[in-house]
Amino acid sequence: MTDGCDAFRPLHRPTAEAPLAGLTVLVVEDSRFASEALRLMCLRSGARIRRADCLRSAERHLATYRPSVVIVDPGLPDGSGLDLIRGLDALVPRVPVILATSGDPAAETPARIAGAQGFLPKPLHSLAAFQSAVIEALPLHARKSRRAVREVTIRPDPLTLHEDLAMADRQLSMAGGGARLDYIAQFLAGLGRGSSDSDLLDAAKSLRGVPPAEAARRVGAVRALVTARLRAGA
């Protein structure tokens, strides 16, 4: 692993077109759609990227190398991303940049309390906002010669949204209640916001706090909507 200083001795120096050159970004995100947006942003910015889709995968990455930047979605399938943020914040040496990302604005305050230095609201479309959030969180000496580029809108491949919907459909087919249903609800809500799909967002909200007697009916209705989206995009 590198120490905090080594993280900013890049082989590739930042340029006006690639202000994040020399940085390695670990994205801890369960959504393929959101991950694809971040992948495109990193590529346009000159940064290297690795992805983990759950806490366990993130821990494997972090056991073998130290990234310059970690971006964490608080809602993960195997636990809370806030726990990961707290752990990263407590590392010695600390991971230089820790950011949180979510489609729920209420997630920002808990993420910052846990140790995140910045927050990326979903949907993730603004390249300049992404670059600015990373640069502003860097140590002062590492910000030199790094300036966000002019605004560019990033549009992920629609196929990744289809992959997310397929994953949600699999989760719904096995859904019971409690924490698992809450996770599916927040995942679908993120897809609804990211794709500007108000019906999907409303469906996700209908899964929150479902009485046990209502769970099967509501899950069936939401799954029917997800299936229709999959067929439309096939």
From TrEMBL:
The modification 4-aspartylphosphate is found at residue 73. Residues 24-137 form the Response regulatory domain. InterPro entries: Bact_response_regulator, CheY-like_superfamily, Sig_transdc_resp-reg_receiver. Pfam families: Response_reg (PF00072). Keywords: Phosphoprotein. This is Response regulator. It comes from Albidovulum sediminicola.
